[in-house]
Amino acid sequence: MTAFSIRIFGDPVLRVPAKKVTEIDGGLARLVATMYVTMDVSRGAGLAAPQVGVQKQLFTYDVGDGPQALINPEIVDQSGECAYDEGCLSIPGFYFEIVRPERVTMSGLDSEGNAVVVEADDILSRVLQHELDHLNGTLMLDRLDPDERKKALKQIREQDLSKIQVPRGRRHRRL
Ligand code: ZN
After folding, report:
1. What is the C-alpha separation between 140 and 58, in angstroms, rounded?
2. How high is the pLDDT of residue 172?
3. Across the chain, what does the average pLDDT equal?
4. pLDDT the model gives residue 169
5. Which of 16, 87, 91, 164 yields a CA-CA distance of 20 to 30 A from 134?
6. Which residues contact 120 (CB under 8 A, 6 or more apart)?
7. How far is the CA of 112 from the centre of ligand 1 (A)?
């Protein structure tokens, strides 16, 4: 199975809110399987469907316990606050310290259509929140304060993101 190519910052698809998944069928299963492969080859800890050009409310994640999918996710509860250096597969080579709730509980469907509730802290909480943002057309840059955001955008525009080589060999926390 061939991996999808990942859409890079500047691609308008990353800014469009995704649509709810209405059918869990073979097509969706293939999409999830291909996203797992894509996440694996790109050493990502999370991947949202819009990052591969699919406008569906679905993301996959793997923080070391094997790949999982969450479909039509919604936040049920969140608490605390923490800062973490986030990377994004769609903004290769850049990491920004982003403040988000420390713990999150999300509901949704798994890849077989079963209702699930995921309670998360630490890196998993971070991944779930970052990917949910992607489904709303929000990027991590939007979580920076206005001055930092301006600075970050300038740095990003000075780079050719398509040419950035991200080190391989260990799992980076890119989402
Ligand atoms: Zn991302």
Report:
1. 18
2. 54
3. 94
4. 46
5. 164
6. 103, 104, 105, 106, 127, 128
7. 24
Contacts of 131 (CB under 8 A, 6+ apart): 46, 47, 48, 59, 61, 70, 73, 175
How far apart, in whole angstroms, are the C-alpha atoms of residue 39 and residue 34? 9
What is the Å distance from ligand 1's center to 127 Cα? 9
Residues with CB under 5 A from ligand 1 (ion): 88, 175
* Domains assigned to the chain: 12-161 (3.90.45.10)
Below-50 pLDDT ranges, the chain: 169-171
How far does residue 69's CA lie from ligand 1's centre (Å)?
A: 15
- Alpha carbon of 146 to ligand 1 centroid (Å): 19
Give tens-digit pLDDT for 26-64: 999 999 999 999 999 998 999 999 999 999 999 999 999
- pTM of the full structure: 0.94
Catalytic residue positions, numbered: 131
Q: Please name the residues in contact with 1: beta carbons below 8 A apart, sequence gap of 6 or more.
A: 33, 34, 37
Buried b (16+ CB within 10 A) or exposed e, 43-58: bbbbbbbbbbebebbb
The structure tokens 């996440």 sit at 39
pLDDT for 161: 84
